[in-house]
Amino acid sequence: MGTTKLTRKEILAEDPIHAAIIHIVDAFRSRGKIIAGAAAIAALLAAGVYFGMRYLDNREMAAQQELALGVAFFHGSVDPSAPDNPLQKGPVPLFKSDEAKYKAAIESFNKVISTYGSSKLSVLARYYLGLSQLRLGQKDEAVRNLEQVRNNTRDRTVGYLAKQVLARVYLDSGNPKETISILEGMIKDPQCELPKELLRLDLAKAYLGSGNRAEAGKVLQQAKEDSKPSMLNSMVVTELEQLEKSTGAGSGSPPPPQP
Questions:
Q1: What SS3 class is residue 189?
Q2: Measured between alpha carbons, how far is 239 from 235 in angstroms, rounded to an integer?
Q3: I want to staple 6 with a disulfide (CB 3.0 to 4.6 A). Which of 10, 13, 29, 32 is the partner?
């Protein structure tokens, strides 16, 4: 996982040390000791920048560690004989059940969000929080968190991933119209870097879910024509062939004459 760098604006916005320094500076100015105040201001600002940057570096490191722990829990293994401490047997977390695994992950992600909510890492933490909640069947809570990530501009890639998950959730919930709206928007968006073949596969399923087999076929055909040979391209071709076969079998048309 790469290191997330805060901008100067973000540093000043969330740094409590900087806020305290500004209060001290205002106090010096109000007393009118111009020369001494100016020297004190310069010294305080210099010290504040140094210690403030170190403080934020430590906070960022702690946030990354907590997020990494949550992700490790999310991808942990399950063994009914696992010890109470998931890390007791090594670096790969081991849990007694899937429920225990995702509950532990949720706890870590919530810590990142509540403690480091103004950082970009919290966006990724909320995305994983939504995924964990889906695994536990907490669909309403998951959708609320994924919707927040979907509309967050701090990390567009994670936002697009959240949209993709939401599209599938809405499709499984019997709402193909919302799924189609999300996926078509992503496919048309030049900033979306997710594989278009995968998005079109999901879009074709949404059209099938709405009963529009013809549009599903068009989407798959377009995906086949636009993509290069790859595993995703093979999946598209397979889906298209299956759709064409099922459409032909269900059309009631007579078989072609035998030579």
A1: coil
A2: 6
A3: 10
